[in-house]
Amino acid sequence: TSMAYRLPDLLRVEPIDLAHRVAERQVQFEALLPACRPLRMMAKVPALVLQDFDAQIKKVAENLRREFPKINLARVIYQNPIVLAREWDALLLPKITALRTLFPKQDLGKMIARRPDLLSRDVEGKMKEKLEGLATLLPSVNLQELVARQPDLLACDLSLISARITHLQSLFPSSAPGEIYTMISRKPTLLLANADRILAPKLEHLKRLVGSAAAQDLCKAMPTIFNRDLDKVEDRLGALVANLPGIDVVRFLKSNPAFLTEPVGDVSGHVAALQAVLPPGVELAKLLAQEPQLYTEEAAVLALKLSEVRATTGLGEEEVAVRLERDGRFLIVPYG
After folding, report:
1. Dihedral over Cα of 305, 311, 315, 318: its sign
2. What is the end-to-end Cα distance of the chain in Å, rounded?
3. DSSP string, 41-101
4. CB-hemisphere CA count at 13 Å for 9?
5. Across the chain, which distance is largest between two alpha carbons, in Å?
6. What's the CA gap between 182 and 159, in Å, rounded?
7. Residue 241 half-sphere exposure, CB side, CA atoms within 13 Å?
8. Which candidate, 1, 74, 156, 251, has a CA 20 to 30 Å from the CA of 307?
């Protein structure tokens, strides 16, 4: 009934003929686009039942596959089946060309995979206006790259985006506008998140963990932390501070963002292993304060590097220790 309401021409087809046509079309779709859920697609776009399969539907699908060979075409078309009913030469190909003009350096296939309705939007009109509006709101941001990474922004009202930028600025009052824009560039979904319900509570949680200034610095340097389960982050930060007293948490995490995903139980063992290979008198915490990325080294590799330093320089352990305390950067180079 709903299909007939959207496409009255279906009422002109005898019920038994319509049933045969739908069954036949289902088989054709499953052969052309496996796992595309053809019955739901036809329910969404009843015109697909009546259109010529080879001349229209198959042609559009094959052309899309040729234009975007790496995308999951069945998924894209399931989410936006109306594209199969569009004229390729008159509508779809010009739209794809216009999208490539707007986003010349971006992977358009990835954008369409993330937002299939791009193939149905008014590219020359509303989309172009949206990009111009975003350019006004985010003057120092590479918009093509931002939207390519998060095409959902094209579906957001500009007034909502403006309000969320303003709210971000209120959460980080000491930050210059450029710092806010950099956060957004690093994490475009900040413009899609509810600041009151999601961002503000997480920022407050971080402030309780590391202090107000450090929390703000951490969020600006790693805005992806808003995606984390902060209870787990709390456990990991606790393990970090317990095993490396006095560590600059923000600087450490900037160099070692993957630390936030490591099992808590591995921290003490890794710290102990690294400390064990250092010359006597060298404290790992002080060394990491200089070069926090050394945390990612395996203890065995670090031991080989130290052995190589002693062998090539003729320095004794005490002299290597003095050099390390002065400058540990030489341990960052790849071994061998």
Report:
1. positive
2. 72
3. HHHH-THHHHS-IIIIIIHHHHHHHHH-TTS-HHHHHHH-GGGGGS-IIIIIHHHHHHHHH
4. 8
5. 95
6. 20
7. 11
8. 251
